[in-house]
Specification:
four-stranded antiparallel beta sheet; alpha+beta; extended
């Protein structure tokens, strides 16, 4: 079962707030501003022709140009500004907004204007009806998409003293963060910053089983023995975030709460935290049930700006 995308594949815009369509370069679902950028690309016509010649709706496209995956250059920013307005006044207003960074080029034709921006990008206007706009050149500045990540790392250490653990890890990461070659701009380390998790004077650590301790002492420990599953412990006193790129994105988190009692006196519980477009729902269920249909308790809370469909007024 497939579901319609909720966000633009190019700029991550919420498609609940903006119209969407399918790319001509590939099968991405994109917002209309990204479609404007696509139509102004020099390769758009060829992509459109290829889609027509393919003769079927499952054509995967010729591939999206890398430049359309980056933030808009100055020429594209002007293009998007014009798209938000209409008429000839929009054309001149948008040009004036560019300020001194916009320089007219000598045009070979009377009815064609070209402008170069400080970042090297070039836009071309053909005074047809409607106005035809194309990007002749994109920015010559280095523009990389943001790819930085926060990584949660579990490390098994043969040490009990938390202060020694913290000092050792900080020393190790400090060395790893040094540039590979100080004289090479591209030789920097990909480790930018780090933080060990603390709550007051308590470090976020988890004790291992006696079996793992014995294996370390006996030299029989094998890689991965300490990480048998995907579960991560949640310790008291710490705050935890349900990670999402957008506060309204649908997401969920399973939390298993051990009862620490014999099974005949009570079983473990599972807490399911679900984020919806309107708020959050918390369900509490027995962990041992296979179909997860029995709900022992449930509660919900709404975002302060949650919207509700208008109730029908009786005739």
């Amino acid at each position: 079962m497939t579901s319609w995308p909720t966000h633009c594949a190019r700029c991550d815009a919420d498609l609940a707030t903006v119209s969407s369509t399918v790319s001509k370069f590939n099968t991405d679902t994109i917002c209309l501003p990204c479609k404007m950028r696509e139509k102004a690309h020099p390769g758009y016509v060829a992509a459109e022709v290829a889609a027509v010649l393919a003769g079927d709706f499952n054509f995967s496209g010729v591939g999206c140009p890398d430049v359309l995956l980056l933030p808009p250059c100055s020429a594209e920013a002007l293009l998007l500004s014009i798209a938000q307005m209409s008429g000839a006044q929009a054309y001149f207003t948008a040009l004036e907004a560019g300020g001194r960074g916009v320089h007219p080029c000598e045009s070979a034709q009377y009815d064609v204007d070209q402008f170069t921006f400080a970042d090297g990008s070039v836009i071309r206007f053909e005074h047809t009806t409607p106005l035809s706009i194309s990007i002749l050149q994109y920015s010559n500045l280095s523009r990389r998409p943001r790819v930085a990540k926060l990584v949660t790392l579990q490390i098994l250490v043969d040490e009990e003293d938390e202060s020694r653990i913290a000092d050792g890890l900080n020393d190790m990461l400090r060395e790893a963060a040094k540039p590979v070659d100080p004289d090479d701009e591209d030789g920097r380390s990909w480790i930018i910053d780090w933080r060990l998790a603390w709550c007051g004077d308590q470090m976020l650590t988890q004790s291992v089983s006696e079996k793992i301790n014995d294996a370390i002492c006996n030299g029989t420990y094998s890689e991965g023995d300490a990480f048998p599953g995907q579960s991560v412990p949640l310790l008291p006193g710490f705050e935890y975030d349900l990670i999402a790129t957008d506060p309204k994105v649908l997401d969920s988190l399973w939390i298993t709460v051990p009862s620490l009692r014999p099974k005949d006196e009570g079983g473990d519980l599972s807490v399911l935290l679900k984020r919806t477009h309107e708020g959050a729902i918390v369900d509490i269920q027995p962990t041992n049930q296979e179909d997860r249909q029995e709900i022992l308790a449930t509660t919900a809370a709404e975002f302060s700006d949650a919207t509700h469909p208008e109730e029908a007024v009786p005739a």
